[in-house]
Amino acid sequence: MINKLAWFLFLWCVSLVNGQSTVSEKGTEIHYLSGTDKDHLVEWDFYCSEGRKSGAWTKIGVPSCWEQQGFGSYNYGSDKMEGRAKEVGLYKHSFNVSKDWKNKDIKIVFEGVMTDAEVKINGKLAGEIHQGSFYEFTYSISKLLNYGKENLLEVKVNKVSANESINHAERDADFWIFGGIYRPVYLSVAPKENIDRFAIDAKANGSVIADLFLEAKKADHVALTLLDVKGNKVEDLKVTDLKKEKNKFRVVTKASTVKTWNPETPNLYQLKIDLLDKRGNILHSVTERIGFRTVEILEGDGIYVNGERIKFKGVNRHAFHPASGRTTSKALSIEHVNMMKDMNMNAVRMSHYPPDKHFLEVCDSIGLFVIDEICTWHNPMLDTKIARKIVKETVVRDVNHPSILLWANGNEQGWNPEVDQDYAKWDIQNREVIHPWSIFNKTNTIHYSHYHSLVNDSYSKDKILFPTEFLHGLYDGGHGAGLQDYWEKMWNLPLSAGGFLWDFADEGIERTDRNNEIDLQGNKAADGIVGPYGEKEASYFTIKEIWSPVFIEDRFIRDDFNGIFRVENRYHYINLEACTMTAKWIQFKGPEDKNNYKIISKSKVDLPSLSPASKGKFTVEKPKNWKTADALHLTATDPNGKEIFTWSYPVATPKEANKSNVAYTTDGTVKTATKNKQITVETKDIQYVFSEETGLLKEVKKGTTIIPLNNGPIILSQKDKIKNITVTPSKDKVEVLVVFEESKWSPGWSTVKEVRSDIIKWTVHANGLLDLKVEFKGYRNLKGYRGITFSFPEKEVAGMKWLGDGPYRVWRNRTKGTRFQVWENDYNNTVTGQAGEDEFVYPEFKGFFSSLYWSKVKGNNNNGFTVYCRTPHTYLRMLTPEEPKVNKSGAHKEKIHPTFPKGDISFVMNIPGIGTKFQFSDSTGPHGNSEHYFGNDDKPIVMDLTFEF
Fold it and tell me: Where does the Glycoside hydrolase family 2 immunoglobulin-like beta-sandwich domain lie (predicted)?
């Protein structure tokens, strides 16, 4: 097996261009035959047996999935076997070998081929056919090469494996399946006497054990040097024990002073190993990047890293890019890990196969815990012979990454228990093995459990609760929706180790046979927190707030605000005082002002010294004019200067904030007339028409332009009949009052029935402003909506600007992650996670928006209108999102597309939760429950609005 040093030397020392190589004296040289990633391909000769561009020799870029280069046909894992593409790809590539390599140990390394690969060098087989798409494999080819001459590499790739258990594991799974040499290919050139591979166990106390697997008859001793990541010497390490076996050395040493590795402070070092002969001459020198950390799983307790019990804030992630399929790049790995860290995640599960090596390197360096997994899919499991080979290839390649804490022996009942013990054969660290979606050994990794299952009171209540998939994020459901309830339960349950959301990104592929349109295979691959190209959905920011390591208790700012916030340090390793916080007191401008805000005061907040998991409080300085502010923003940054989150708190009430925006004048006259069952009110250049029978607004005309806000306010969840309608004109205004028949009403939990009437009161002012006050009853238990609604044709809406929470819409079980300020969105018809005319354009325009103060609705071919809201805690409903595509049975429809109120634009006091692919919102926790409680006050609910046209 090729030693892994070569890869790391390559990363540090060479430009990623084919034909270039890295050389270290007495080290290993890497010579790329292919390109290095999705953005750097090298053309090889290629023949495809069937499908597109088949039947003739041509060229293809390597590495690549051949479908993305225009060859063959597409298949998703759930396609029926008889309909699957079964192409065979033939590759040829010529390369030169130096005469100087004749006395070297030369290997050819394939980082990944889909699926069966037969390799020939100069017409001779390099070794047995390799099976399995996601695993690195190597052949020793020193004896097959023509030195100083041109050599021919031939690779035959069968898209469908000859091993049926491989086909089931990799090609029946719930993801896209491809064909081709999709990861890089290179030659490894080492001295004849060399370290073939090595495995390192570096503990948090500085102790190091290394197993060196040798191809060296002259080897007698080793020298060890600890370097920093830049290559500077930290210390020479004394070998305290050296055990020699045939073709293997076990080396023991200890570093005197090291910083440990964890995701919050991912300290890394390099371990340089020199293999020496009896005279002390270097035979071979290798260097590996390592992190010092200790992993323990304590039964009935938890998962510990460096003595700290961990709550995993994790996500599942496919190695995928829409343009290149499974062929990725280190740049993409960095982008994805940075986005996970930005969401305050600390862990990632490799679903459902080992990733590119560079992804693990990035997890090491930027800091994420990793579950590394072999590819299986439900029953039947991998046959034992091939499973043993795959386990070995996975562990041998990945053994030294400090980010990897656990091995997953497949996915969802695809585990082969006969190979559970094989991991320890190859893993010097003896990391434990889990079975995702199983109660196995010390853990319960249940998938998609309902909220109530988190009580963990079954026969497995002594197991560490550790869902490796939860809150399935189909379309806009799951992920952030429900996470607040799940996480508070997980955080406070001693035996909960957190969990992993499904999944990171929508797996939409650019179909090269369909003009590069994005294909998500219906609703099978639309599960991401981000879109195919990393477009951020609302759940991205919800997760960012809920998983913030700086946890601020919810609170509201009122006139008696004392400046105190209660805080909890939810880091595992960092003291809270290492973070910084800034407070901004902000005034917001009106709808017509281009400058949306003004900062009236800015100050630093002194965070308390709190060790991990400790609680305390901090105080925000109140400037003298703090009550003139509309909002307070608190921004926390981590020790590296990256934003953790920005919390926002309204200071002024909607009524106070809108005082300067709504100005009544007595200039002008108001005329009113009643005819043909219509009440017409005119003032200046505006005409309002109300129904004499219902009191509803029927038409608004400004000049000659009709502004199509009409048919409202309909009081939602109300069936009372109208008692009477009165029109009261005066000099500078006209009032239209609608009184409904009295009905019995029970405030709060009282059994006393009162009689109360709902009312609608319109007031048209001389300057054209239109006030609306609606009073309606609350209900102790309601599954409908409380509020009012209007019609406004969707085609007439161009966008909106508003003061409130944004820029994303909310659901009852996903209100976190927004910020209170002025926002502006253009109209779009985005269906979250679904390809279409407005595919992956975020934020979505349509939906519910919380904490409305005012909104300017922009019209198409009309002037639109502005509405000012004086009622606290009001949600604006802007149009109705289009229903997403669901499977043929429609089983997911009601779970991920709640019922909206009638009409188009509404002002409501309550909103629905949203479910997941597998759950209705009610089962995702208290915030997702469909029951709403009103009427705990002896006063009616009042909706107080002013419209400006």
Answer: 204-293
